[in-house]
Amino acid sequence: MKIDLTETNSSKINAALVKARRDIGTPAIGMVLTLVIVTDEENAYDALKSANDASHEHPSRIVVVIKRVSRSPRSRQGARLDAEIRVGADSGTGETVVLRLHGELVDHAQSVVLPLLLPDAPVVVWWPDGAPADLAGDPLGALGQRRITDTYSCEDPIGALGARAAAYSPGDTDLSWTRVTPWRSMLAAALDQQVLSVASATVEGESDNPSCELLAMWLADRLQVPVRRMPSGGPGLTAVRLETKDGAIVLDRADGALATLCMPGQPDRSVALKRRDTAELLAEELRRLDPDNTYEASLKFGVAKLDSSAPPAEAPAAEAEAPAKPEAPAKAEPKRTAKPTKKAAAK
């Protein structure tokens, strides 16, 4: 069922939701959270489709906020709210409210969304694209216990990681981090099988893919070893190599679907490591509403590296090589010191 409301308000929207549930015979609310999607017309369809697919695992009220910025100064002075309500088969397993804000109402979206939140239920805010620099400081972001963004959609994905780290607040997360969950699980399981000391690591992937940088930062933070970042043709992450004294542990995924795990003293094995769509990533993030401390540590580990001249993941390797560079000049200096000048002075 779909209901269109023009020039409406939050009170009328709530009344229409109750009436729509009664009309389809489901007056009870069985939803576990409110998912607020802040997007534009261009990305609204894809974002809503992913949210509806994720609602099969997490029944929720989905509130889509679309800000329609007026072009003329006279139109900006007015304020209008249009809404589209979807319940039943048109809204996954929950219910959907699509809000289109016009005029001055664009700057006060939180006042429209607040009355539509489910009572006594967690709130998650998701920016599929165009996320603010400070997620928790944003008026809509302040409504949520969990704030989801995707640095992969940014114009400068690698630079956006530094901005996310600088303005990080507990509850922030990134779908670029969610994409590396299977990689982190596979690598951790490989190291649990054999007690090996990792000396260095290499991460291969697309040069502008923030998931590659986050995985490299996680390895450098957890293993405290130099990590190199090697560009490849993709798709996405392609390989991780951990160097040990007994040989290399290699997780190689060249086709984006099936990976090969190579470990010292063991036969190579094939593991499923397919690239997941947005609905699967979103469903994973909605499973946990507490702060992700591992993401925080990995993200903040890369702040200094992102601000330096060296690449984020190569900074640990540069630090490890730094002591070796002065050794050659230090040994060569005695041969060129003041001894020849002393002999010359004696003559």
Summarize the structure.
This protein is of the alpha/beta class. It has helices at 10-23, 41-54, 73-77, 109-113, 157-166, 175-178, 181-193, 210-223, 278-286, 293-301, 303-307, 315-321, 327-332, 339-346; strands at residues 2-5, 33-39, 60-68, 79-87, 95-103, 123-126, 146-149, 172-174, 198-205, 227-231, 237-244, 247-252, 258-262, 269-272.
Write a structural description.
It is a single chain. This protein is of the alpha/beta class and 347 residues long. Helix 2 (41-54) packs across helix 9 and helix 8 (210-223) packs across helix 10. The chain has helices at 10-23, 41-54, 73-77, 109-113, 157-166, 175-178, 181-193, 210-223, 278-286, 293-301, 303-307, 315-321, 327-332, 339-346; strands at 2-5, 33-39, 60-68, 79-87, 95-103, 123-126, 146-149, 172-174, 198-205, 227-231, 237-244, 247-252, 258-262, 269-272. The termini are far apart. It has 2 domains: 2-149, no CATH class; 181-275 and 298-324, no CATH class. The strands form 2 sheets. The chain has an 8-stranded mixed beta sheet, sandwiched between helices. The protein has a 6-stranded mixed beta sheet with strand order 10-9-11-12-13-14. Mean pLDDT is 83; it is low at 306-347.
